[in-house]
């Protein structure tokens, strides 16, 4: 069925709108009782409720929330979706809990978000890392053969985890990874936090469409949804109950109805022309890239990540302070990421183009090569939950990395919990602007 043909109902909006209008005394949470503390936020407070009669309950959804989730799955044309008001982070926790329940060996591409590492700490999971052949520590290009080798060496059924698109918009070959997983009866799960829109490009590049078993989509990153709104997508609809059970283990018992309503509105937007907007906007972005191809060197395959190879820190400063101010998503000494979205209008593109015209790209510094892997001295869990002290990088050689403290964005850990820190990796951290690190406090 074509996306536009989905006849959507706004279950949540209808319920919340009616409740906001009627005079029922709110003898229930939240404590604001629908009264705003700030002019301009009146409807947000009035529509912000909790699990009252008729409003369903996200982790045990059988009513309006489940119906609304089914509509999201239908719009994406995939078997099942669970909503998250706790971002992709909650989805990653749930996907990993499912892999733990299936007793699978996790094989992960090293360029993970810290949500992955923290989930492994909480679930006491061990990970076999696959390192990128090029690209670096935040974004990497992997060899399929390295994943295959890891699958061959695994002593039990496995699951491959990759981040795609990554923070810079670099994408992995999900189709090939899915085929590989099939060959070894492994599961494939994808951190697609940056790719909620991929199902609606001219060529459907959504991980589930390409054969992945599970993925998380941060609707709030590239689609019009409130911060925290995400979709946990899956190939096997019979697993919804399991995944919801895992989500409730990590998520708040009070998921925000405002965030959930924004997921419904986002789904409706997709079904009412949003898909087309995603395609036309992608074409407009391509035209922008072509216009500036002599001046800027664009990297990354994902269209909505406008990633420029340049000294991003300097370019970000110029863009922020020019006559057409632009605040970017991420910048370091090797690149800058300007994250775009299909809600952009022509006037937004014109501001961006004017800014790109007046600014100058300073040359990018060379991305350092990844040093030889560090030794995992103790488990993620032991190190991640151990007493720690924060010390300067210069004093950290041979100490054991404790819980990771990496700035967000991009929140990609350089060393991970439990690794014995080598000089070269500490040097890499310094390159990315880190000054100190939490190490295990040995008693
Ligand atoms: C690659 C990646 N994965 C996961 C996450 C976590 O997503 P969320 O903020 O929706 O919890 C982020 C957040 O920036 C991310 O960049």
Short synopsis of the structure:
The chain contains 14 helices and 13 strands. By secondary structure, it is an alpha/beta fold. The mean pLDDT is 96.
Unreliable residue runs: none
Which range best describes the helical content: under 10%, 10-25%, 25-40%, 40-55%, 55-70% or over 70%?
A: 25-40%
Approximately what portion of the residues adopt beta-strand conformation?
A: 5-15%
For this structure, the quaternary state is single chain
Encode the helix/strand succession as letters: HHHEHEHEHEHEEHEHHEEHEEHHEHE
Separate helix tally: 14
Strands across the major sheet, in which order?
1-7-6-5-4-2-3
Characterize the biggest β-sheet.
Answer: 7 strands, mixed
Give the distance, in angstroms, between the N- and C-terminal Cα atoms. 62 Å
How many β-strand runs? 13
In this entry the ligands are: pyridoxal-5'-phosphate
Q: Could you say which overall geometry the principal axes of the C-alpha atoms support? A: globular
| Overall pLDDT confidence | 96
| Radius of gyration, taken over Cα atoms and rounded to an integer in Å | 22 Å
Q: Which class of secondary structure composition applies to the elements?
A: alpha/beta
């Amino acid at each position: 069925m074509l996306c536009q043909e989905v006849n959507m109902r706004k279950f949540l909006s209808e319920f919340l709108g009616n409740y906001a209008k009627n005079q029922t005394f709110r003898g229930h949470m939240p404590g604001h009782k629908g009264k705003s503390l700030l002019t301009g936020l009146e409807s947000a407070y009035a529509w912000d409720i909790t699990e009252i009669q008729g409003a369903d309950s996200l982790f045990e959804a059988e009513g309006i929330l489940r119906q609304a989730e089914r509509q999201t799955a239908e719009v994406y044309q995939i078997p099942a979706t669970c909503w998250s008001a706790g971002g992709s982070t909650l989805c990653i926790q749930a996907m990993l809990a499912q892999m733990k329940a299936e007793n699978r060996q996790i094989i992960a591409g090293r360029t993970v978000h810290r949500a992955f590492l923290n989930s492994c700490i909480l679930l006491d999971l061990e990970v076999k890392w696959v390192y990128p052949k090029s690209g670096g520590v935040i974004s990497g290009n992997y060899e399929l053969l390295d994943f295959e080798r890891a699958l061959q060496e695994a002593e039990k059924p496995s699951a491959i985890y990759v981040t795609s698109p990554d923070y810079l918009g670099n994408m992995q070959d999900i189709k090939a990874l899915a085929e590989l997983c099939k060959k070894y009866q492994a599961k494939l799960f994808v951190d697609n936090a940056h790719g909620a829109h991929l199902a609606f490009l001219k060529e459907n590049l959504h991980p589930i469409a390409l054969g992945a078993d599970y993925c998380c989509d941060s609707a709030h990153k590239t689609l019009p949804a409130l911060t925290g709104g995400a979709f946990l997508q899956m190939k096997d609809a019979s697993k919804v109950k399991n995944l919801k059970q895992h989500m409730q283990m990590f998520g708040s018992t009070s998921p925000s109805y405002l965030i959930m309503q924004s997921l419904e509105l986002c789904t409706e937007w997709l079904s009412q022309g949003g898909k087309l907007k995603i395609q036309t906007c992608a074409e407009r972005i391509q035209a922008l890239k072509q216009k500036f191809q002599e001046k800027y060197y664009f990297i990354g395959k994902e269209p909505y990540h406008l990633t420029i190879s340049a000294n991003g820190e300097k370019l970000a400063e110029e863009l922020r302070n020019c006559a057409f101010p632009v605040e970017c998503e991420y910048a370091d000494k090797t690149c800058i990421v300007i994250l775009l979205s299909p809600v952009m209008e022509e006037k937004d593109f014109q501001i961006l183009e004017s800014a790109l015209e007046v600014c100058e790209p300073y040359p990018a510094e060379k991305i350092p090569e990844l040093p030889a892997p560090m030794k995992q001295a103790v488990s993620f869990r032991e190190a991640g939950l151990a007493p720690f002290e924060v010390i300067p990088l210069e004093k950290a050689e041979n100490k054991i990395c404790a819980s990771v403290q990496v700035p967000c964005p991009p929140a990609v850990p350089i060393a991970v919990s439990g690794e014995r820190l080598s000089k070269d990796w500490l040097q890499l951290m310094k390159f990315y602007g880190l000054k100190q690190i939490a190490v295990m406090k040995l008693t």
